Amino acid sequence: MGQVEVQNQTPATTYGQWRFVVAWYDGTNAYIQLDDGPIYWTNALAPEPTTNPLVALKGRAPFAADELFFYKRVLAPGERSTIYQIGLRAMLSNIVEDLLFDMELTVVSGQPPEFLAQPVELTVQEGENTGFKLFASSTTPVSYQWLLNGVPISGATDPLLFLPNVSKLEQGTYMLVASNAWGAVTSPPVKLSVLSRPPVLTISRSPSSNAITIQFNPQGQAAELLGSTNLHDWDVIYAIPATTNTIYLTNLIGKEEKSFFYRVRLHP
Which residues are registered as beta bridge partners of 215? Predict the structure, then answer.
């Protein structure tokens, strides 16, 4: 009754067993009786009509309530005993004038969603299309929300998260929250790594000299110019800073060397 709870203290109901429960309020006390057994009561003030005035059945385990009736008066002890012995509908004609309404009520127990698989980390280059896909199992409808670094992604409410033309801004840790009427679960974090695309690189050599021109487009990535006479042993010839995109090098090899090979190694 309102904020006051009265509990029946008879032995617990076993699975599949039906019980007869009567609860009433006489203006001073709230009562409960199970199967025509002992009556348990506690003092209770009349609650406001809009504050959930009566919770007739409350339990941690799933239960179903069949033949639920409400009366506008307290039934006498003999009436309660007779209903328990012969059933309410058998004597319904005797007290039908006091019946407010009857209904059937079923409480269904469920579980929060459960993810069917674990997410897989991804490493892609800037500009590529990528995404994550993760499903949750549930007996009731599921709602989804993707998170990036703990922040909800606007509009990402589907098991499939499609990320077109990714950039460094989308690099980070992703999680999926799946929720239903029974709760919510969050997937393990999964990382998306976005690699910068290597710059367009051009190496040219003057036919009349040993001058080398190296051009980057765009600039912004440090590198090293390597040289070799046998394609096996490579030596660093010049360190190329990230602040430039054009390098001119002269007098790199001696006249006695007939063949010389160049390559550029980009720094991460």
Answer: 202, 246
Which CATH number applies to 114-195?
2.60.40.10
Which DSSP helix (H) or strand (E) runs through 92?
helix 92-95
Report the distance separating Cα 165 and Cα 177, nearest Å: 24
Quote the percentage of the chain above a pLDDT of 70: 67
Per-residue pLDDT reduced to its tens digit, 59-94: 545 556 666 677 777 878 888 888 777 776 655 555
Cα–Cα separations (whole angstroms), residue 58 to 52, 61, 104, 136: 13, 9, 16, 30
Q: Are 26 and 1 in contact (CB under 8 A)?
A: no
pTM, 2 dp: 0.44
pLDDT of 104 > 60? The answer is no
Using alpha carbons, list the distances in angstroms from residue 154 to 21, 142, 147, 164, 193.
49, 18, 9, 15, 20
CB contact at 8 A, 113 and 185: yes
Give the pairing type, strands 190-195 and 122-125: parallel
- pLDDT for 102 beyond 50: no
Residue 107's alpha-carbon distances to 5, 57, 70, 182, 203, in angstroms, are: 20, 10, 18, 13, 75
Q: Does residue 7 contact residue 40 with C-beta atoms inside 8 Å?
A: yes
Q: Tokens standing for 219?
A: 């600039």
